[in-house]
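re: ur question from yesterday

yeah so i grabbed the chain u mentioned. its 73 aa long if i counted rite. heres the sequnce exactly as i have it in my notes:
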Amino acid sequence: MLKKKTNKLSQEQISDIISLALSDDVSFDNIKKMYDINSDEIKRVMKDNVSFGSYKRWRERVKKFTERRKHYK
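ran it thru and got these structure tokens back, copy pasting raw so excuse formatting
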């Protein structure tokens, strides 16, 4: 189910989503408003398009931010 929606994204959109997701100032909600994809789909885009190590570090950083900020990613 996730694959269908994320397959419809262009390379340009995927690159933009990755940049936004890597930014510490942009929440999953903001990305959802821009691209109509939920947090699971954002994670899938990241997992499919960045190295495993980068994905793992990103998820750890997001989790730390989430613990500090109530409404983050």
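noticed a couple things. The chain has a mean pLDDT of 87. also Residues 43 and 59 are 9 Å apart (CA to CA).
anyway ttyl
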